[in-house]
Amino acid sequence: MLIDWFTVGAQALNFLILVWLLKRFLYKPVLDAIDAREQRVAAELADADAIRATARTERETYRQKNEAFDAQRAALLAQASAEARTQREQLLDEARAAARALADARRERLESEAKALHQAIGVRAQKEVFAIARKTLSDLADAGLEERMVAVFIARLQALTAEELKGLASALAASDGAVSVRSAFDLPPAPRAACEQAITGLLGADVKVGFDTVAELVGGIEMLAGGHKVAWSIAGYLTALETGVTELLRAKEGADATAARGGDDGRR
C-alpha cells in the first residue's frame, strides 16, 4: 500500500489550521468568557461577603441597641414603679394624717362642746343655788337680826389692822370726810349710836357718819369711806363661797384638760 505523503501533509496542514482557528475563534473567547465569568462570580462573592459582613455588623449593632433599649426601658419602668409606690405611700400618709386631724378636731370639738355644756350647767346650777340661798336668807332676815349683827360689825371694825386704818384715814382725807353705814333695815337708836361711837373712835371724832337703808343687802352691815368698804354680811360669805366654788371648778377643768392632753400624747 502506498502512502500519499502529499495528502497526509495536506491533512496535517488542514488539521493545524483547524486547531489554530479553533483556538483563535473558539477556545480563546470561551476561555476569556469563562475567566470573565469567574472574575464576575468572584466579585459577586466578594460583594456578598461584604454584604454579609455588613449585615452581621448591623445585626450586632441592632442587637446591642435592642439590649440597651430593653435595659433602659426596664430601668424607666423600675423608676416609674418606685416613684408610683413613693407617691402612693405619700398620698396614703397624707390621707391618714388628714383623717387623724379631722378625727382629732371632731373629738376636740365634741369635748369642747361637752365641756362648755357641763360648765354652763355648773355655772347655772351654781347661780341658782346661791340665788336661792340669798333669797332664803333675805326672807329670813329681819330688823332684830340686823341689830344683833351690829355687834359683829363693831368687832370687825376693831379688828382692822394699822395698815387698813391708815388706808381708811387717807381715803377720808382725800374725800369729804363722810362715812356711810348701810344696812338692809333701819337700825334702832342704840345700835346706831354704838356703831357711830366705834367708827369715830377709830377714825376721829370729826368724821361724819351717815346711815342708809339698802334692801338689796342680805343680812349684814357695810361701811363706805372714801371708796373703801368694810363689811360683814351673809352676802359676803356667800360671795366668798361662790368664788371658792368657781375657782374649784376651774381648777378641776384645768386638771381634766391636762389629763386629756396627756392621754392624747400617750395615744400618739
A few lines on this structure:
The protein is α+β, with helices and mostly antiparallel strands and 268 residues long. The chain contains 5 helices and 4 strands.
Description:
The protein is an alpha+beta fold. It has two domains: 1-140; 141-250, no CATH class. The protein is built from five helices and four strands, in the order H-H-H-E-H-E-E-E-H. It has helices spanning 5-140, 143-158, 162-174, 189-203, 234-267; strands spanning 178-183, 208-213, 220-225, 228-233. Helix 1 runs antiparallel to helix 5 and helix 2 (143-158) runs parallel beside helix 4. The longest helix is centred in the first third of the chain and has 136 residues, at 5-140. The radius of gyration is 65 Å and the shape is rod-shaped.
Could you tell me the mean pLDDT?
A: 76
What string, H for helix and E for strand, traces the elements in order?
HHHEHEEEH
Largest sheet: 4 strands, mixed
- The helix fraction, in percent, is over 70%
Q: State the oligomer.
A: single chain
Give me the number of helical elements: 5
User: Can you tell me the overall shape?
Assistant: rod-shaped
Low-confidence stretches: none
Number of DSSP E strands: 4
Count of all domains: 2
The structure class reads alpha+beta
Rg, rounded, reads 65 Å
Percent strand: 5-15%
How are the strands of the largest sheet arranged?
2-1-3-4
Q: What's the end-to-end separation, in Å?
A: 143 Å
